Each structure stands twice: as C-alpha cells, then as structure tokens.
Amino acid sequence: MSEAMARDLTHRPVILVVGGGYVGLYTALRLQKKLSRGRAEIVVVDPQPHMTYQPFLPEAAAGSVEPRHVVVPLRRTLNRCRVITGALIGLTHAEKRARIAPVEGTSFDLSYDVLVMAAGSVARTLPIPGLAEHGIGFKNVGEAIYLRNHVLARLDAASSTDDPAVRTRALTFTFVGGGYAGIEAFAELEDMARYAVEHYYPRLSPADMRWVLVEATGRILPEVDLDMGAWTVRQLTARGMDIRLNTRLESVSDDGVVRLSDGEEFPSETLVWTAGTKPNPVLAQTDLPVDGRGRVECETTLQVRGMPDAWAAGDLAAVPDVTKDEPGATTAPNAQHAVRQAKQLADNIVAVLAGQEPAPYRHKYVGSVASLGLHKGVAQVYGVKLKGWPAWFMHRSYHVSRVPTFNRKARVVADWTLASLFRREVVSLGQLQDPRREFVFAANTGRTGQLPPPRPEAPGTADTPERSQAG
Ligand SMILES: Cc1cc2nc3c(=O)[nH]c(=O)nc-3n(C[C@H](O)[C@H](O)[C@H](O)COP(=O)(O)OP(=O)(O)OC[C@H]3O[C@@H](n4cnc5c(N)ncnc54)[C@H](O)[C@@H]3O)c2cc1C
Asked: Is the sign of the CA dihedral 88, 90, 96, 97 positive or negative?
C-alpha cells in the first residue's frame, strides 16, 4: 500500500483475499470487523462457498460430527465482504490484476489494491502407477464423506457374499502417509468400522478386516516426540492394524492390487493418500516470488518479499519462524500458525492503511493433539504428553474452542452430545456417490427395479461433491 494511498481518504481500496480457508476466512473476518464499510472493499474468492475446518474431517468421516457442521458458510459469516465462488487462475501483481474463473461462465479480470494470498495447499502425490485411478485424498469434506460411505459400503458388500476373494478385497483398507491427517483418518475410520462390525454385521468379525498404513520414513506423527509416535504405533498395532514403516507404495494394478516396496502385494478396494501436501500450484500462474519448495516468500510481517501491497500466510507461505535460532527456518504448515498468521496479517493491513508500520509475526509452536477414535488420542502440548482418554478429551476441547463461529461450536457440541446418548450412526448412504444412477437407468430403459448392484467406483470417477476444493 503506497503512502499516498494510505493518506488518500477518497480512495476505497479493494482488498482481494484469494482463498476462504483458515487464513482467508479469519483474515476477512477481522478486516470486516476492523475496517468500516467505506474504508475498504473486501473481496473473497474461493471455489467453495465455505471454509472447511479440516481438523474435524476425521471425526466427520467417522460420523461423530455432521459434515455440514465442519464447514463455515462464507456468505453468512463474511456478510460485509463480496464473496466470489470461483478460482484464481492467474495474477499479475505488477499490474494489480487477478484473473478469476467463476464456477459458471467466462473468466474475468479483477483489479485490486491489496492482495492476500491464502489459497492453501494441495495433496503432494508421486507418479505411482495406478494411484490417480484408485486413490483418494483426505483434505476436503467431500472426500471425508465419500470415504465414510465407501468404508461402510465395503462392509455391506463383504457381509453379503461368501466369495472369499470379494470379502478380502472389500475388507482391506490401505492408507499412505503417517502425518496427523493420515493417522487420524486411519484410526477414526477403523474405529467406526470396528464398531459397525461388532454391532451390526454378525457375519463379519473385526479380525476379517485388514487396515494397512504405509509410511516411507521410520516413524509416524512427526509433529510429536519420537516416543509418542512409537506409542501410537503400539496402540494401533494392538488394535490389529498393520503399520508399515520405511515402506513405500510402488503401484496399484488395474484390478486394485496394491504393491508395496517390501515386496508384498494384496488386493484393496480402498486406497487413501495422505502423504503430505504442497503449496497450491496456482502460484505458478502468478508473479509472486516463490522459494525452492514452491511457497510464497514472505517477510516476518507476512508481506510478500519485495511487494509491500501483497501478503501471504498459511500452508502456501514461507514465513520466517523468528522463534527458532536456525537460519532460514520457516513456520510449519498447520492450523495453529494459519489462524494466528491471519490475525496478524489483518492487523498489519489495518495498520498500513492507517499509515502505521506492520508488526512481525511471532508464535512458538505449542504442540499437537490427535484423535485416534472415540475416547482414544495422543497429544503433546507445551511439552506435556497425554495418551488415551485425556488426549482425546483435549483434542475435542481444543478444536471446539477453535472452530470458527459460536453457531458451529454449538452444533458440534450438540452432535457429540447426541452421539453419546444414542448408538453410533453407521449406515452407508452409498447413493450419494452416484445419485443419478437409478433415474438415468429408468429414463434410458423405461424400467425400474432391475438395476444391477453398484460396483465400488474408482474415486477418480465417482460423483463426489466438493472434490475440487483443493484447487
Ligand atoms: C484431515 C486434516 C486434518 C488436519 N488436522 C490439523 C490439526 O489437527 N491441527 C493443525 O494445526 N492442522 C491440521 N491440519 C492442517 C490445517 O488444516 C491447515 O494447515 C490449514 O487449513 C491451512 O490453512 P490455509 O488457509 O493455508 O489453507 P486452507 O484452509 O486449505 O484454505 C485454502 C483455501 O483456498 C481455496 N482455494 C484453493 N485453490 C484456490 C484458487 N485457485 N483460488 C481461490 N481459492 C482457492 C480452497 O478452496 C480453500 O478454501 C489438518 C489438515 C487436514 C487435511
């Protein structure tokens, strides 16, 4: 923001916020609170009409929280911003011009004065044969709900046949990547499936299921100390889950046979990829400076290096970590930094608009909490290590305090309360994966009732709502 513009009270600067996730939502919320209507126009662009509270996705997949309650509607929450449902597809900051592709219709240019780049990250995949055809990520609510329905539908399939090959294939669930997102998804879904099998599938036993987690390094949960990661491996192994450390996924055949680097091969109808993230590739379509890992280079004030009117934070930003002595250290991509950076970023924009100096971002990472299923968890916060029920309780208390808006907090607590009073809901709404199937069959053939049973679709072809969230 030029000094002249800061002083020019007749000019109403346009603040363009790219991405309405953690950073985008919190930044826009604070800006709309701190800037009067006439002071600036805030425009938020996101392909999704909502922010996703990603730490609740594993619980949404397990059915402990309603899917609608893990998202925050942008238009309702950002009622003093202009919300565009679309994606940034290019940006020339030198001309302060962004190219936007709305969900429908032709793309258009948008001029702005101040940029907030907050388009997050996407799954970091590898060119593994068969992965794109058979795998699914775990970053958005569509994927979480797809997996819930898919896992339960596999139990239905296995319980309804005596063919051992079909049963084995259906009941083998493979996950790749042992960070917190992967471990939470793996553990929560196993916990849900175990409950379902024990209560509603008399023809199946938990021992019939095979849950395999493949991790390329020698440990899981790098966010906590080694002993806590090792404890988690022991806990999951005691539940009968198969954790393969120092192992990679090599390939997946056309008929879904998974091959690992340790030489083992097995058929699996479920393949979930949670092996890390990378900055949103849309950055390549901009003139913002990026580092060797593809992240936007930032100053400690969260300004983009060499561009005082552009700001960035969250998963796609290389923000110097001033709490560490190591030269070149940057903050880790997680919600804890994202939410705090958003606050600092908004305050800095307000300060610069008022002709003041921006302040540096400073936050020492306090630790992690992870849920491993109902009443099970692992946590390390301010150096305090918790296991089992206390960790799980801390996970829930922490995240309910963090999920944006009172409305969402109340709904999540109501979900948990109802779930504790009644039995767990473990029904597959498999029709959500392909809702037009029956109608299309009827319309094409003039018949109903003779539809062949649905096959499990490869995730890449299933009709999964909201799959495009990560851009
Ligand atoms: C399953 C899971 C569990 C997690 N659990 C934890 C946890 O327990 N603790 C923790 O600290 N962190 C956790 N994280 C990480 C945390 O959610 C992220 O670090 C955080 O969301 C990053 O915020 P962000 O704003 O940078 O990105 P996001 O929140 O991902 O927001 C990016 C936004 O940009 C939008 N977008 C994408 N492309 C475009 C485009 N071209 N144009 C416009 N908008 C675009 C997206 O739709 C999205 O809304 C978890 C992540 C996952 C996936």
From this structure: negative
| Residue the block writes with tokens 């049973």 | 453
Residue 320 DSSP code: B
Residue type at 273? W
Lowest mean pLDDT among 87-91, 104-108, 399-403: 399-403
The CA-to-CA distance between both ends of the chain, in Å, stands at 28
What domains can you pick out in the chain, each with its CATH number? 3-123+278-353 (3.50.50.60), 131-275+367-421 (3.50.50.100)
Nearest residue (by CA) to ligand 1, atom 4, is 55
Q: How far apart are CA 314 and CA 296, in angstroms?
A: 10
User: In one letter, which amino acid is 37?
Assistant: R
H helices then E strands: how many in the chain?
13, 24
Q: Is the CB of 110 under 6 A from ligand 1?
A: no
The residue nearest atom 17 of ligand 1, judged by CA position, is 54
Tokens for 397, please give them.
């208390």
Using DSSP bridges, classify how beta strands 242-244 and 210-214 pair: parallel, antiparallel or unpaired.
parallel
Residue from 315, 340, 398 to probe ligand 1 pocket by mutation (most atoms less than 8 Å from CB): 315
For the chain, what is the mean pLDDT? 90
Q: Which helix (H) or strand (E) holds 73?
A: strand 71-73
Determine whether the shortest distance from the Cβ of 16 to ligand 1 is under 6 A.
Answer: no
**Pick from 133-147, 263-277, 279-293, 411-425: least confident:** 411-425
Q: Give yes or no for residue 338 CB within 6 A of ligand 1.
A: yes
pLDDT at 424: 79
Residue 213 scores a pLDDT above 50:
yes
CB-based contacts of 425: which residues, under 8 Å, 6+ apart? Answer: 63, 419
**Ligand 1 centroid from CA 7, angstroms:** 35
Q: Which of 17, 46, 83, 278 to mutate to test the pocket of ligand 1 (most atoms within 8 A of CB)?
A: 46
| 308-326 residue pLDDT tens | 999 999 999 999 999 988 8
What's the token pair of residue 165? Answer: 């090959």
Residue nearest to atom 49 of ligand 1 (CA): 21
10 pLDDT higher than 70: no
Nearest-CA neighbor of 188 among 462, 451, 446, 419? 419
Q: In whole angstroms, what is the distance from residue 199 CA to residue 181 CA?
A: 27
Residue 339 dihedral angles phi and psi, to the nearest 5°: -70, -35
